[in-house]
Write a structure and sequence with these properties.
heterodimer, A: mainly alpha, Outer Surface Protein A, domain 3, 2 domains, three-stranded antiparallel sheet, 6 strands, 12% strand, elongated, B: alpha/beta, TIM Barrel, eight-stranded parallel beta barrel, two-stranded antiparallel sheet, 12 strands
Chain lengths: 251, 292
């Protein structure tokens, strides 16, 4: 099969495959080791610099040796489809989800922690739609709340926002987090829960007043008409406005 | 109309330079350049800062991920995104490396295309495909290399053949010619003399790292070496004064230090500009006949 390929493409395959996986793919016959080493080092260091920059907590927790091993496996095995450097971290998430084979010694939350660290980068640079005109003093219940330029909510099985070298082995605990970019382009995180996550999803639709959103949420969860639950919803809206997740109501 | 998309002396814009360069004017830096891969789809504070630059300065796109010589299929959607990005920001031209950076997926750095006749045809056909999409000539750059796998012809022959076959333009990287002349043992001046003048759109100049006496690495991490400044003068002497951009990607120094190198480009351009006037008025010199 490979014999049918033009000579130069066979050379390209050999060259690239060795750079990706030097331990298992032989060095091209017409390139000496000293020159090949320049390529091996440049490529691997480049990829690792992107991973180090996006996943500093994960890198620190699993340690330099294992981190390099995982980086090497990612570079050797994963088919990167994105031409964009900022998306190398997404390619890495896709690798963790589909190709990564954890060791018994690896923390079980690797993917979730990586996702959480990636989210910070994503929210920072995600192009935002123009924010609708809003009035910060207008009643959130009577009118449609307007959200910050970028708001994303995720539910994790581990408290990923609390993991650090000081706390490397947290108990599993369902953890809902909202990550948002404020109007001043600062990235913020807020703890949430599955109920408020549903509220966020309703608000993101941008079609309902605060009152309608809370009513729909209560109804969907069997709390229709429950005044205490309703006031809980109102408190959440106010809290989100004070954080800058909600900017105000549609003008 | 000038055959050059930009004028004067330029500087590559990097993310870390967005703040430091904020008070620099188009008189200081006549044009800038960015990798579209680092800016397409970037919003937020970075996107806003970038927009403030493209509104003030003439820009070139200098791509990294086109992978024009790759065994993988050309990413047509990506090329369209670059085209749209250029339109959105009023960017003057699109340059890319005569190399490849993918093989069964992206690898995010540049590999040397084997210099063969078959590769010339293959690459030229892909360049023409890109030119059809962007509706303007692609500007290809001679790349630095540390190996020449599968080589069947000299680099300069390969470069000239691709330029002719694809009918595209050239970003002449003088530092890369110097690096390769050391790494592969050829005469940099003989190479530069053979470059077709009328195809050059602009020039790159940068610093490199001396890994060994016979092995230079194109790091863009130091100041430009004297040998490379000499080659820039040699290039102007042979091909006329051409817009020239300084690349600096690592160990980025203060704006003052960067500007002193940009100003050195300007000074050399002025020397040769004055010489050209002398030649055309008094002697009918060779640089005049090369101005398209």
């Amino acid at each position: 099969m490979s014999n049918e390929l033009p000579d130069f493409i066979q050379h390209q395959h050999a060259f690239a495959n060795h750079i990706k996986d030097p331990e298992n793919k032989p060095r091209p016959e017409d390139v000496d080791d000293r020159h090949m080493a320049v390529y091996r080092d440049l490529f691997f260091k480049n990829v690792m610099s992107f991973l180090d920059g996006t996943f500093p907590v994960l890198a620190e927790i699993i340690g330099a040796h294992r981190w390099q091993q995982i980086g090497r496996d990612f570079f050797a095995r994963h088919h990167n489809v994105s031409p964009y450097f900022l998306e190398i971290s997404q390619e890495f998430l896709s690798y963790l989800e589909n190709e990564f084979q954890p060791l018994d010694s690896d923390p079980v939350y690797i993917y979730e922690l990586a996702h959480y660290e990636w989210l910070e980068l994503f929210v920072d640079v995600e192009p935002a739609d123009e924010v609708a005109a809003f009035d910060a003093n207008k009643d959130l219940l009577a009118f449609k709340p307007v959200l910050a330029p970028v708001v994303e909510g995720f539910i994790y099985q581990y408290p990923v926002h609390q993991i650090s070298t000081a706390n490397p082995n947290p108990e599993a605990q369902q953890t809902a987090l909202i990550v948002y970019r404020s109007r001043e382009d600062e990235v913020g995180f807020a703890a949430s829960n599955p109920f408020t996550m549903q509220l966020l999803a309703l608000l993101k639709e941008g079609r309902y007043s605060g009152h309608q959103c809370i009513e729909a949420l209560l109804e969907a969860n069997g709390y229709a008409g429950n005044e205490a639950a309703y006031q809980g919803g109102v408190a959440i809206l106010n809290q989100w406005q004070s954080l800058g997740i909600i900017l105000g109501a549609a003008a | 109309m000038s055959r050059f998309p930009v004028k004067g002396a330029g500087l590559g814009l990097r993310r870390t330079l967005l703040g430091p360069l904020s008070s620099v004017t188009p008189d200081d830096v006549n044009f800038m350049e960015v990798a579209p891969e680092n800016w397409i789809g970037v919003g937020g504070r970075l996107g806003k800062q970038f927009r403030s630059y493209t509104e003030r300065f003439d820009f070139m796109c200098h791509g990294l991920s086109l992978s024009i010589g790759s065994p993988d299929p050309l990413d047509v959607e990506f090329v369209k995104q670059v085209r749209d990005f250029m339109r959105e920001h009023g960017i003057k031209g699109y340059s890319e490396h005569l190399s490849y950076c993918s093989n069964e997926g992206h690898m995010y750095d540049l590999m040397p295309i084997p210099f063969t006749e078959e590769a010339v045809k293959y690459v030229a056909a892909r360049i023409r495909q890109v030119q059809d999409i962007i509706e303007q000539p692609l500007i290809i750059e001679n790349v630095s290399a540390y190996a020449q796998p599968g080589k069947q012809m000299e680099e300069i022959e390969f470069l000239k053949a691709v330029l002719a076959e694809a009918d595209c333009r050239l970003l002449l990287d003088v530092n890369n010619v110097f690096v390769n002349s050391t790494n592969h043992g050829f005469d940099a001046k003989r190479y530069l003399e053979q470059v077709p003048t009328e195809r050059i759109s602009y020039i790159h100049i940068a610093g490199h790292y001396d890994e060994a006496e016979d092995l230079l690495v194109d790091t863009h991490g130091t100041t430009v070496k004297d040998d490379v400044w000499d080659l820039l003068r040699f290039t102007y002497d042979n091909h006329g004064v051409i817009p020239t951009l300084l690349e600096r990607d690592f160990n980025i120094p203060s704006v003052e230090e960067l500007m002193s190198e940009v100003n050195q480009i300007k000074a050399i351009q002025q020397d040769f500009g004055a010489q050209k006037i002398l030649n055309s008025e008094g002697l009918g010199g060779k640089s005049e006949q090369r101005i398209a």
